[in-house]
């Protein structure tokens, strides 16, 4: 009769394969069909990569993790050089140094770092999700600066403690910005509601890298101790590697959610070429070092009081935006477009209001560049040239209403998601009716 294969199975997209065979004597035989060496590679994949890789993560996962591994290794090397310098500064190896002085320095360093962490989270916490790539790179640049200060500190005995405290503040900010943005990037990479698994495996990868760096440091430290020129040479080399790897890491991330920087690029491309750019193209063009530069800054979720200077201005806005979930005001002198949201506004309303604001900014930026704009933008051009703010708002609103449905369909076809959006809206919300009555609230 011969053996009969009853079942075949495989582990995800890996090459681990098994056959379940019924033998002549009735036994169930498990036959491993995996190629040679697959078991070892499968073991390491299961230890260091999320379950279901690569289907369970975003397409940019592997490239990002490679660059992240390189930067973590470089950071571990420079961090050890800094730790050696700080220990030397507090008196390790110096017979005249006291335990009390070293302890006080360490306490002050930790204390100022804790305060810095609280203040930074208060001032910038809400923008970390919206601009996670830029803040991630900022955190790593600041970390290198802190390490530089720590290496320098022992050379300035009179101000050693203030320098170390400054470095502590920088590193505390790095901890907040780096940790928060890492969580945002992990959320982007997790495609099977497996954020915890992706985060845990990322931690395993980093631990392995740190172990490798630890072995290198054990061999390196005896060679560089007391040799300042060699220390600075290694610091420069590994810092350059660290910064390049971090820049490459954030540039390769492709996020489908819209923030103000990506929306700015999409609207510019749309108005320049009547084409909505794809997710990958826009992400690669997104600035990750500096903020998006506009002539008119966009403030979403603004207080109603910032939109107008008089009761008549407010009444004009209420009449223009009658029945709409937002009010948009333009102040050319301040270089601002402020958007007040109603209590019932949705993410779609936020996207539409920011789209209108980006259109106004685009026309304003190109007003004096002798650039031929599409005929549909002519009413806005004429209004801005004449300094007619209300006319500009009226023309931009009419253009937005005529194009917003096609815009939403276009971005969805290109792979963008419109819910949620990361447009960094403030928390002011208002109520208004046709009689011009508003009631501001802050939640």
Layout of helices and strands:
Layout lengths: L3 E7 L6 E6 L5 E5 L5 H11 L12 H29 L9 H26 L7 H21 L7 H30 L5 H30 L3 H24 L5 E3 H14 L5 H7 L11 E4 L10 H10 L5 E6 L4 E7 L4 H19 L12 H8 L3 H25 L3 E6 L5 E5 L5 E5 L1
Parallel strand pairs: 4-8, 5-7, 7-9
Antiparallel strand pairs: 1-2, 2-3, 6-7, 9-10
Helix pairs in contact: 2-4, 2-6, 2-7, 3-5, 4-5, 4-7, 8-11, 11-13, 12-13
Task: Give keywords.
five-stranded mixed beta sheet; 13 helices; Growth Hormone, Chain: A; disordered C terminus; three-stranded antiparallel beta sheet; 443 residues; alpha/beta; 3 domains; 12% strand
Notes on the protein architecture:
- The protein folds into 3 domains: 4-48; 61-253, Up-down Bundle (Growth Hormone, Chain: A), CATH 1.20.1250; 258-442, no CATH class.
- The chain has helices at residues 38-48, 61-89, 99-124, 132-152, 160-189, 195-224, 228-251, 260-273, 279-285, 311-320, 347-365, 378-385, 389-413; strands spanning 4-10, 17-22, 28-32, 257-259, 297-300, 326-331, 336-342, 417-422, 428-432, 438-442.
- The strands form 3 sheets. Strands 5, 6, 7, 9 and 10 form a 5-stranded mixed sheet that branches.
- The protein starts with a strand and ends with a strand.
- The protein is 57% helix and 12% strand.
- It is α/β, with parallel strands linked by helices and 443 residues long.
